[in-house]
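thread: overnight batch results

M.L. [08:02]
morning all. the overnight job finished for the chain we discussed friday. pasting input first so we're all looking at the same thing
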Amino acid sequence: MADPAVVALAVALAGASSEEELAGLARAEAEADGTGRLRAAVDLLRAAAGGEEGPVPAPDPATLFRIGRLVRRDEVLEALYEADLRGSPPDTTGLDELGAGLATGVWEERDELDEALGAVSPEWRVERMPAIDRSVLRLGLWELRHRPELSAGVIISEAVRLAKAYSTGRSGAFVNGVLGRLAGEA
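M.L. [08:03]
and the structure it wrote out:
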């Protein structure tokens, strides 16, 4: 039996009418519970879309795609973080096509991304930043540059969510400040 909080979150996600609303739900969930319930809610929606009987109705493909984007960033961040630590390209096994494209795009442009990040954070050399913060910033900046269909606010909000969920309490503000300065340049 599914956790009622997970079911309620899945229903809220499926009923969200905008990217901003989805990002707000994801951010609030990350602040309340990390990413556990968010991932579980998305898994419920993916299962329902795949025809499994469950406590939530099957979302249409476009809605599922938008919702999947929320955890896609988590999955891409994990691949980028691991790649950064290994010093080799990200393993995109298990990522969908969009996720693999994000991870590969960020990895291929990391030198240019790091240069831009370093230019707006002179007190923090990029190579000295925590690896998770560096990966979040790279992903956020890459999306600012290459995902014009998404507003800068949504991209930055998602980067802050990732930083809060996977790094320190102060990382969210740091990521927000750095990407906010870069948003106008992207």
